[in-house]
Design a protein that fits this description.
The protein is an alpha+beta fold and 113 residues long. Helix content is 52%, strand content 21%. The protein has a three-stranded mixed β-sheet with strand order 1-2-3. Helix 1 crosses helix 3.
Length: 113
């Protein structure tokens, strides 16, 4: 696995922060009582793709939220572009994945009790 450059890390943090802000509004309008957060963003070396790992609480709604985000991908990318347009020349394509690390941690803690 390649170590991300400093520029990749900065762009990933920028995208993570701005997507998080967008998702607060998105959850408020579409999924009442659901918390959507961006846990990790990984940007490709050519800045053409950003893999965004989404954490959803309650986790039972995870797949439903992920499907909804994937159907609104172009709209989300456009809104992200309006936020980061001054910092980035090209807004990367977005790919959303469900981050199930919290469920994994809960499972391990349950086994250790």
């Amino acid at each position: 696995m390649q170590v991300p450059s400093e520029r990749q890390s900065k762009v990933a943090r920028l995208i993570q922060r701005d997507l998080g802000e967008l998702f607060v509004e998105y959850a408020r309008n579409n999924f009442r009582g659901t918390l959507i957060s961006v846990s990790v963003v990984r940007v490709s070396p050519d800045f053409s793709l950003a893999k965004c790992y989404i954490s959803v609480f309650p986790s039972g709604k995870g797949q439903e939220v992920l499907d909804s985000l994937n159907t609104k991908m172009k709209e989300i990318r456009f809104k992200l572009g309006s936020k980061v347009g001054k910092q980035l020349r090209i807004v990367p394509e977005l790919a959303f994945f469900l981050d199930d690390s919290l469920d994994y941690i809960d499972k391990i803690e349950g086994l250790l009790e």
